[in-house]
Amino acid sequence: MATREPRGSRRRPDAPPPDVERIPPRSGLSRAEVRVNQRHRIFDGLAAALAYHGYEDTKITDIVELSGVSRATFYEHFQGKEPCFAAAYEDGVERLATAVEAAVQGEQAWDARVSAGLRAGLEFLAAGPALAHLLLVESMAAARPARLEHERSLARLAGALRPPGGEAVSEETARLLAGGLTSHLAGRVLADEVERLPDDHDVLLQYLLTPLAATSRSADERRA
Can you tell me the mean pLDDT for 205-215? Predict the structure, then answer.
């Protein structure tokens, strides 16, 4: 496959296009199943294009080329790049959240839940470098609606970090920890070290738990 020179300044090293599952004629899939398949392929193509070009320089032509669908098919699903990115971001966040929620099932202690959820999240991101790039890096360069969705995701993460009944832990403290966590992860992505994210579990867990535990302990002491 010929290597194209990307437009503008590349944010990351050259990224190969994803393997796409092409549906042959009379595949036996229903129309609804075909549309789901096309949508996921478009998301994969978008993620690959973003990793190669960056948000500003990614064109619809790049997305359809890497996803293996026609331009007409793309526009059957999305009106343009911005709504496509918003949908891909939302889909990625939900998949990440599903992986984390499944990992914390059965864990009773709050610190064990944070540990299990953190490990699952790191492993999920490490398994999909292009998606990690979309979620952690390009969401900050995307259009305003996607950036607002990113802010809502940070608030969701901050809420998950607060201990049950931990009214002593302010929303601001939890939000700062969530922001620091995502900043570290984005740095790993930009350094092309996504696969190493699971190795950061212990130090990130200490980063998250120590301030929250100290805040809760201080509040308990004041009440006593």
Answer: 79
For residue 207, the tally of other CB atoms under 10 A from its CB is 15
pLDDT in tens, 129-138: 999 999 999 9
Instruction: Say how many CA atoms lie within 13 Å of 184 toward its Cβ.
Output: 17
Co-location of 107 and 64 in the same domain: no
* Strand segments (E) across 95-148: none
Task: Mark whether 55 and 103 lie in a shared domain.
Answer: no
Is the same domain home to 104 and 209?
A: yes
Calpha distance 52→54 (Å, rounded): 6
Rounded CA separation 72/74 (Å)? 5
Chain centre to alpha carbon of residue 3:
27
Count of domains for the chain: 2
Rounded to 5°, the CA angle 185-191-193 comes to 70
